[in-house]
Specification:
By secondary structure, the chain is of the alpha/beta class. The protein folds into 2 domains: about 5-20 and about 95-230, Rossmann fold (3-Layer(aba) Sandwich), CATH 3.40.50; about 20-90, DNA polymerase, domain 1, CATH 1.10.150.240. It contains 10 helices and 8 strands. It has helices at about 20-35, 45, 55-65, 70-90, 100-105, 120-130, 155-165, 175-185, 220, 230; strands spanning about 10, 20, 95, 115, 140, 170-175, 190-195, 210. The protein has a 6-stranded parallel beta sheet, with helices on both faces. A two-stranded antiparallel sheet has the order 2-3. The structure holds 2-phosphoglycolic acid (PGA). 2-phosphoglycolic acid binds near residues 16 and 50. It catalyses: 2-phosphoglycolate + H2O = glycolate + phosphate.
């Protein structure tokens, strides 16, 4: 178990960790594929494709539809998906239980907090603002801000460099094996949440330092009193 006394900053994954984004992503993907003459994959299936950014999401959807796209087709489908997602992202995204109040409590620690997501950068800040949690984060790293996405450690190195932290000073909280692998490769301690999207796989298999069932469970491991009775 990692020693959390060294922690001087917190970083959070977005989709599946702070935000239930599957409704908006799947609605956009359903519209994209049906416009191209394919069946709608639906939310249950699309939620198993989330986690590696929009290009891979589109690639997985086209593979499911039986298409091996050339680069031009892939790009056009991605652009079509982005147009639909711009319309579905706000109504199709909600905070997971306890997220807002837990962030408010964590802010009392006066540690810098970052979001590190593979979601395309242009969607990230507006989404955090529309859910009214943007004020908690001094740093937002989206999928277009580094050449290599999670599970590569590059986005976490960017956080460490920007905040001036050593690797053991940043706790990374995520729901996917991409998050846990990125943290391990960077040398950062990690929390794996069980409620998100992880390709239908248990997050414990990725061996994060902590496995938590609720976002509010972060509070006691960081030495704050639990919100469990008030908020979930
Ligand atoms: O694949 C996505 O767009 C979601 O990415 P995230 O889980 O890193 O937030």
């Amino acid at each position: 178990m990692a020693n959390l006394e060294t922690i001087r900053g917190l970083a959070f994954d977005l989709d599946g960790t702070l935000i239930d984004s599957a409704p908006g992503l799947s609605r956009a993907m359903d519209l994209t594929l049906t416009e191209l003459g394919f069946p709608a994959p639906g939310q249950q299936r699309v939620s198993t494709w989330i986690g590696n950014g929009a290009d891979i999401l589109v690639e997985r959807a086209l593979a499911w539809a039986g298409v091996e796209p050339d680069p031009q087709q892939q790009l056009q489908t991605r652009q079509r998906f982005d147009r639909h997602y711009a319309d579905t992202v706000d109504a199709g995204s909600t905070l997971f239980p306890g997220v807002e109040r837990t962030l408010a409590q964590l802010a009392s620690l006066h540690l810098p907090m970052a979001v590190v997501t593979n979601k395309p950068t242009p969607f990230v800040a507006p989404l955090l603002a529309s859910l009214n949690i943007d004020r908690y984060f001094s740093l937002i790293i989206g999928g277009d801000d580094v050449v290599a996405k999670k599970p590569h450690p590059a986005p976490l190195y960017l956080v460490l460099g920007t905040l001036g932290l050593y690797v053991d000073q940043l706790l990374f909280v995520g729901d996917s094996r991409n998050d846990i692998m990125a943290a391990r490769s960077a040398g950062c301690p990690s929390v794996g949440l069980t409620y998100g999207y992880n390709y239908g796989e248990a997050i414990a298999l990725s061996e994060p330092d902590y496995v938590l069932d609720r976002f509010t469970d972060l509070l006691p491991i960081l030495g704050l009193s639990s919100l469990a009775n008030q908020d979930v």
